[in-house]
Write the structure tokens for this entry.
Amino acid sequence: MSIRSFAPLLGTIVALALAGCQETTTAARPRVDAPGVPVSVQSISGAPDQVTTAFAGLLGEAAAERRMEIVPGDKPARFRVRGYLTAQPTADGQTALAFVWDVYDESKKRAQRVQGESIGRGSSGGDPWAGVNQTIVAKAASDSMDAIAGFLTTAPVVEAKPDAKGKATDKKAAMASSAANGKRL
């Protein structure tokens, strides 16, 4: 089953995760906050459905911890992200859950690629996904949001050009500027 068929479910899962989460701080891992930058998670592919669903929920929680504004796919967003997950055995018999995120700007150009992996227990048998547990998925989701938030905090803001009356003429630029300042239009 394609992740595109999960898009409405993914949006709902992320929205529910954000609605039900409280901000927590874990001293064991550094966290990057990116408040006020609207981001839409467009897709997560490559993993079995149960891993994708768990990852989407944990990704929403990780975004909420970083005060990121995750918006549904049909709402204005400064950036849109598409992710890919893969599991593979490591040389020492463990399992690596690798993630790759392409971050696209408003003009649909790739602005950044972030990637990493989470290592966990090995799997017995030939299916590396069998070695992917909740701990590995949670770490990959957290690391994903740290990497994305790290980019968001350094991404340049498109400035609106004022017209003769001093008002912003470019709606997208005005939205990006407002989002960077933590305001909603």
Remarks:
- Confidence is low (pLDDT under 50) at residues 1-29, 168-185.
- Residues 134-154 form the longest helix (21 residues).
- The beta strands are 38-45, 69-70, 79-89, 95-104, 110-120.
- The two ends are 37 Å apart (CA to CA).
